[in-house]
Write a structure and sequence with these properties.
The chain has no helices and 16 strands. By secondary structure, it is mainly beta.
Length: about 300
């Protein structure tokens, strides 16, 4: 929702958006024979929802400035072979699968923006977003200690440390080479290397007095900075129809050694196609299609083995 104040260069608004996230569920996977074989599940769900009140100032007809406060809600669930437990099975060490559920947290970010219109239909935009660190709290952990004869132990106080949202920079330009065609070009940089390095899952308050009173499980991410380029076009076929097309490419921000089926961030490019139909001044309908080319990566994993 946005509103321009009457007889004022200021406008204010608020948005509720899905800022980011990831989610994979891999059911009935083959378990590494070193862990006892068989089949088990693996999944990871991570969500960022942002409430963003904003203020914009039209300095003059060419220049506008804006700022947004991001109130970010984050939630996460993860499970890694929750039904698998073995002793001296993984390079001589014990392995205990787990299920981590219902952890969440809130953090704040700001984004600053500038929009400049040099002339005609050309628009140039620049934005900067701040970094934020957060601990996801108040979850619970089910830890499979069947290898110690304790079964699945529930820890009622489980937190995920080391999570973060990256500092980001973006610049874009939109222009019309011909009257019917709008072209936009955008470049972004996400500084993931400063936001997520080593994640740590910590838990306490077990429901079994024979279980360890505290757990600490490091999960290496070692994220790299990510550069994204995007090209978009909109063609006004006639007064009723607009055709859209676009291309997006980004480098992988997770190194191969830290990939897994639950964090399979390997897609680097995608294509988009869309169509919009205007019915009158107030109503239109639009449909879009995204295509991700097939991608595969071979990597070495302590859980899945070499050449996974």
């Amino acid at each position: 929702y946005a509103r321009h104040f009457e007889n004022s260069p200021l406008a204010a608004g608020v948005a509720l958006v899905v800022q980011g996230g990831t989610g994979w569920t891999q059911e009935d996977m083959r378990v590494n024979p070193q862990l006892g074989g068989g089949r088990d599940d693996m999944s990871a769900m991570f969500t960022v929802i942002k409430l963003a009140p904003a203020l914009a100032w039209e300095v003059n007809k060419r220049l506008s400035l804006g700022v947004t406060l991001g109130i970010n809600y984050l939630a996460a669930n993860e499970e890694v072979f929750p039904n698998t437990s073995c002793s001296n099975c993984l390079f001589g060490q014990d392995f205990s699968g787990f299920s981590f559920q219902n952890a969440s947290g809130t953090t704040f970010t700001t984004k600053w923006g500038l929009q400049y219109r040099p002339g005609g239909d050309t628009v140039i935009g620049v934005t900067y977003g701040t970094k934020a660190d957060i601990t996801l709290k108040d979850g619970y952990l089910k830890y499979n200690l069947s290898n110690a004869g304790l079964g699945k132990v529930r820890y009622d106080n489980a937190d995920l440390h080391g999570m973060g949202l990256p500092q980001e920079f973006a610049i874009g330009i939109a222009f019309r080479p011909i009257e019917k065609l709008l072209v936009s070009l955008q470049a972004k940089r996400y500084q993931w290397s400063q936001a997520m390095d080593i994640l740590s899952l910590k838990a306490s308050k077990p429901d079994n007095a024979s279980a360890p009173t505290t757990l600490s499980m490091p999960m290496p991410f070692e994220a790299r900075d990510q550069n994204v380029i995007g090209i978009g076009t909109a063609y006004d076929y006639d007064v009723s129809y607009t055709i859209y097309a676009g291309f997006n490419r980004a480098n992988r921000f997770l190194p191969e050694r830290n990939l897994s089926p639950a964090f399979a961030h390997i897609i680097q490019e995608h294509y988009t196609l869309g169509l919009a139909r205007r019915f009158d001044k107030k109503w239109q309908a639009a449909a879009g299609l995204e295509y991700y080319p097939l991608k595969s990566v071979t990597y070495n994993s302590p859980i899945f083995g070499a050449d996974s």
